[in-house]
């Protein structure tokens, strides 16, 4: 590069640069004109000028007049003054590079919206990211919302048959005669199993429970117990207790906290009589599938759920 400082300024440097580069008496290409702010301008050529070429440059500058349309609609930047330092007003064009490279004003902004956050104006480097993003969210994660609508990374459904996630399945427990301090019989898929417990096929959450009986004004206490797969009927955990007073039918969906069972858990219901002895009792548990699994497992054990007086409340 070769630089030539001349006692010269112009309000239309782009047109002047085009004129000099079109001058057949000046061979090196002019790449930039910079107003140094002291009544001088620097002319940057790709290579040095000969003595005759520099004289021709002086002649051009001595007779230079901006074209009549400089700064008009076809040349909106022609009336801007160039400088080699950025002015305080970010909208002022101060270098021919801004014209050549089509730079945007520094006040232009790129801002995040919806699920994207961050960004800002162009006065600094900016970052954008997903709302509640994480550098390493972990394996098998999906970006979405939870039950409260909060955006973030959450566990994705695992195993085969993922289409079942969110589906509802049920377990039905009955007593055809009088229910009085006893384990209710479990009926799976309308088939009598002659046992007091059902088996959870998938990791699931209890979302509803219904009660009905033949007796009007019945009282009772429903206790939902579970034991994990592989442990027979022990240890037994009281997962939920529901007290009914003067109810022939009832339903409940407002649980104080999530009640979740793992695949393979054995579920049993112990009914405690606290007043009127109900007859022809039916209790139905409704579960939402949380994750699915493709597997086969089982266990063989002896013994029955022991009658317990323990319990909690919901």
What does this structure look like?
This protein is mainly beta and 314 residues long. It has 3 domains: 2-85 and 95-100, no CATH class; 105-156, no CATH class; 162-291, Sandwich (Jelly Rolls). Helix content is 8%, strand content 36%. The chain has 3 helices and 20 strands. It has helices spanning 13-21, 51-62, 96-100; strands at 2-6, 30-35, 41-45, 109-111, 116-121, 128-130, 141-145, 151-155, 168-178, 182-183, 185-188, 191-192, 197-199, 203-212, 220-227, 237-244, 249-252, 260-261, 266-272, 279-291. The strands form 5 sheets. Strands 9, 11, 12, 14, 17, 18 and 20 form a 7-stranded antiparallel sheet that branches. Strands 10, 13, 15, 16 and 19 form a 5-stranded antiparallel sheet that branches. A 3-stranded antiparallel sheet has the order 1-3-2, covered by helices on one side. A hairpin with a 6-residue loop joins strand 5 (116-121) and strand 6 (128-130). The protein is rod-shaped, with a radius of gyration of 41 Å.
Q: Report the average pLDDT across residues.
A: 80
What's the helix count? 3
Helical percentage: under 10%
Classify the beta-strand content into a percent band.
35-45%
Please give the largest β-sheet: 7 strands, antiparallel
Give the low-pLDDT segments: 70-82, 189-194, 309-314
Distance between the termini: 83 Å
Topology-level CATH name of the largest domain: Jelly Rolls
- Class by alpha and beta content: mainly beta
Q: In the CATH hierarchy, what is the architecture of the largest domain at level 2?
A: Sandwich
Query: How many strands?
Result: 20
Output the helix-strand order: EHEEHHEEEEEEEEEEEEEEEEE
């Amino acid at each position: 590069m070769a630089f030539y400082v001349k006692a010269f300024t112009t309000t239309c440097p782009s047109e002047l640069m085009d004129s000099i580069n079109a001058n057949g008496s000046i061979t090196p290409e002019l790449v930039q004109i910079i107003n140094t702010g002291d009544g001088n301008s620097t002319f940057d050529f790709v290579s040095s000028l000969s003595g005759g070429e520099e004289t021709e440059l002086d002649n051009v500058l001595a007779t230079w007049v901006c074209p009549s349309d400089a700064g008009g609609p076809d040349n909106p930047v022609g009336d801007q003054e160039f400088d080699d330092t950025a002015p305080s007003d970010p909208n002022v064009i101060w270098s021919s590079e801004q014209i050549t490279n089509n730079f945007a004003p520094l006040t232009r902004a790129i801002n995040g919206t919806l699920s994207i956050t961050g960004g800002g104006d162009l006065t600094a480097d900016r970052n954008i990211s997903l709302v509640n993003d994480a550098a390493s969210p972990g394996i098998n994660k999906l970006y979405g919302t939870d039950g409260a609508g909060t955006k973030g990374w959450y566990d994705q459904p695992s195993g085969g048959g993922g289409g079942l996630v969110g589906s509802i399945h049920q377990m039905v427990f009955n007593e055809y005669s009088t229910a009085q301090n006893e384990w209710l019989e479990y009926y799976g898929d309308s088939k009598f199993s002659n046992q007091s417990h059902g088996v959870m096929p998938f990791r699931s959450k209890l979302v509803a429970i219904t009660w009905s009986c033949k007796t009007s004004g019945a009282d009772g206490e429903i206790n939902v117990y579970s034991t994990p797969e592989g442990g027979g009927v022990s240890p037994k955990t009281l997962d939920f207790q529901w007290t009914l007073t003067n109810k022939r039918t009832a339903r409940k969906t407002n649980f104080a906290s999530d009640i979740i069972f793992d695949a393979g858990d054995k579920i049993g219901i112990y009914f405690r009589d606290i007043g009127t002895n109900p007859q022809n009792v039916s209790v139905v548990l409704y579960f939402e599938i949380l994750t699915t699994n493709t597997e086969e497992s089982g266990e063989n054990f002896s013994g029955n759920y022991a009658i317990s007086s323990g319990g909690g409340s919901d």
